[in-house]
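re: ur question from yesterday

yeah so i grabbed the chain u mentioned. its 178 aa long if i counted rite. heres the sequnce exactly as i have it in my notes:
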Amino acid sequence: MTKIKIIAAVLFTSVFCFAQNINANVKSVSVRVNGLPVQYTALRIDTLERCIQNLPAPEALTASTQGRTEYLKRISGTNKNDYVKVWDAKVQLVYQWKYKLHYLLVPQGGLEKQEPIFHEVEGTTPFALEVTSDPQESDFFAFSSPRRYYFDSREAAQNSAVRRAQQKLSELKVLECK
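ran it thru and got these structure tokens back, copy pasting raw so excuse formatting
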């Protein structure tokens, strides 16, 4: 039962580490964990290795779109007010983090009483990132102060989302496993 609690604590902490910014230089985290064996008080996890595997191919990205009708005023700088169908798009990037962690269970009362326990854990964690289209890339706008931009075609929204997802992929490429 205590092994399960230790493994659960390690997995929880590893997911916590991956949820942080991927560019952070933090290499270790120390956590107080409820449910550790009584003789241990803290858990220290050091990241030995972390990289991304299974990045999707940039040419295979497709966007899902959603259209809605809105009442817009002063469309494209004119005095025209009307109901217009506007579009949003998003691309779901799904990949896996591969990690190798080294963790240390620190004994209660110091190292004199009992030796610490060292373990190494390897595994993968699935990760999904949603990239949305940016209406600021559109030429279609409404209202005058402040001006709000919209996509007035499905294709324009899809192109924006795919372009932004491809840019994100190129940023993640440097973190890919060798």
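noticed a couple things. Residues 154-172 form the longest helix (19 residues). also The helical segments are 2-19, 154-172.
anyway ttyl
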